[in-house]
Inverse folding.
């Protein structure tokens, strides 16, 4: 199967799952800023995306996207380390043209994944999971605004989320244009344009996410 | 202006492919800044021979930057710290008096060390043999204007064809990926009418051979382009991806 055997096939899987996850992040961040505009509206979205059959299908596809992206990342990173050979360079200098992020995607990905586990515990475990399993306080399961204000009433959590989102931002600034390059959607003229577009997309997504902990950190959300 | 400098050289010595290698330190005095890097290596080897020691093995041939034979990973950069040149075009004026210069071979699982700084780059020849040619009979020489080729395509193909196959891309890449080399070789033919005919087969065969030989996967760091002595662009890698993916989806 060429999607597993060939290097470009593996990169294709990486870029398709990557683009899918970016689209999810765009959707997630758009949904999130509603909590600033209208907590009631946000709770309506939470209700809509509870343990319903369509939300469950979407969640399963999303989880599969994450799992495939992470498994392929492990696989590719292992192969790449082996390709260098037994002896590494004693002295290796980087070029100024090479972005730091591009050489540390696996580390950034690991950081993002570590915080993702915390994030799932903070929200998913108390919301959709409670509805699914029936354990815990079901009355609060769709009250997303409550959980958000609860979590971000602690400034430590605000900072943790800001650090996490910064790592994600670095991951995306390389990831988005890199995915398009791997899909072959690039040429000499479009290379700088594609890089700029991916910087804009990742910055917009991250700013939307980040606005929420910052909003609570500055004390605007305490009235809810 | 010519002056003489003293340098300390830390050079990788390895007797054979299976032997364990290590760094040896040599002091070389009164090196002219007008001499080339390889001339400096020649001077060192002359001294080692006169001292009845084994000279350092390194690859070189034309010494004018066109054959792609010279290699050497100098102070953390393939072909040395200067940009867009090969090691043979590097001059001692790029180094300071009293500087320590670390010289290593290309390090890649697909480029096994033969001896000292010499590596076996036969892997690149095997990739070319897998499809880096035109096998159709193009007949006699046609009139020069019978097949129009746009200036853009012609320039792009020539830029790709400037690749000398030295292996600096795979040496510089943190994943030891040969994608820039393969992309250049696929591009130079895929852009022109005679090469287009076999473009799909060529992309598949060369990528399959590249993967088989143990090169890594491209992660678009761009280190290859930054270190390439001929400045081959990573946009050729996008073309290779495009050629390969469309060929596979057609199957």
């Amino acid at each position: 199967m060429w999607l597993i055997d060939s290097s470009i096939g593996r990169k294709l899987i990486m870029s398709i799952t990557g683009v899918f996850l970016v689209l999810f992040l765009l959707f997630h961040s758009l949904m999130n800023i509603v909590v600033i505009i209208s907590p009631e509206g946000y709770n309506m979205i939470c209700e809509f995306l509870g343990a319903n059959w369509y939300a469950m299908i979407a969640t399963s596809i999303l989880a599969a996207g994450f799992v495939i992206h992470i498994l392929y990342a492990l696989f590719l990173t292992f192969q790449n380390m082996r390709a260098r050979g037994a002896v590494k360079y004693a002295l290796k200098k980087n070029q100024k043209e090479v972005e730091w992020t591009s050489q540390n995607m696996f580390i950034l990905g690991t950081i993002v994944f570590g915080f993702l586990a915390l994030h799932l515990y903070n929200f998913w475990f108390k919301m959709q999971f409670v509805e699914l399993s029936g354990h815990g306080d079901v009355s609060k399961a769709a009250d997303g605004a409550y959980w958000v204000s609860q979590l971000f009433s602690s400034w430590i959590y605000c900072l943790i989320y800001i650090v996490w989102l910064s790592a994600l931002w670095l991951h995306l600034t390389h990831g988005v244009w890199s995915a398009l390059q791997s899909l072959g959607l690039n040429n000499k003229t479009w290379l700088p344009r594609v890089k700029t577009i991916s910087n804009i997309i990742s910055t917009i997504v991250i700013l939307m996410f980040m606005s929420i902990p910052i909003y609570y950190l500055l004390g605007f959300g305490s009235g809810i | 202006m010519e002056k003489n400098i003293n340098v300390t050289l830390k050079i990788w010595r390895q007797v054979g492919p299976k032997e364990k290698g290590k760094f040896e330190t040599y002091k070389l005095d009164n090196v002219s800044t007008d001499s080339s890097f390889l001339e400096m290596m020649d001077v060192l080897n002359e001294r080692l021979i006169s001292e009845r020691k084994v000279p350092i093995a390194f690859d070189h041939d034309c010494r004018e930057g066109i054959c792609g034979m010279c290699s050497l990973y100098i102070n953390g950069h393939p072909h040395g710290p200067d940009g867009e040149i090969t090691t043979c075009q590097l001059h001692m004026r790029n180094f300071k008096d009293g500087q320590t210069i670390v010289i290593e071979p290309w390090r890649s699982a697909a480029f096994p060390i033969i001896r000292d700084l010499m590596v076996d780059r036969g892997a690149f020849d095997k990739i070319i043999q897998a499809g880096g040619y035109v096998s159709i009979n193009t007949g006699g020489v046609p009139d020069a204007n019978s097949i129009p080729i746009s200036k853009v395509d012609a320039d792009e193909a020539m830029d790709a064809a400037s690749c000398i196959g030295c292996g600096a891309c795979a040496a510089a890449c943190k994943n030891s990926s040969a994608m820039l080399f393969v992309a250049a070789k696929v591009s130079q033919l895929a852009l022109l009418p005679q090469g287009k005919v076999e473009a799909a087969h060529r992309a598949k065969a060369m990528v399959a051979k590249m993967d088989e030989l143990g090169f890594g996967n491209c992660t678009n760091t761009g280190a290859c382009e930054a270190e390439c002595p001929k400045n081959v662009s990573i946009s050729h890698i996008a073309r290779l991806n495009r050629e390969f993916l469309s060929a596979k989806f057609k199957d």
Chain B has two domains: 4-104, 121-250.
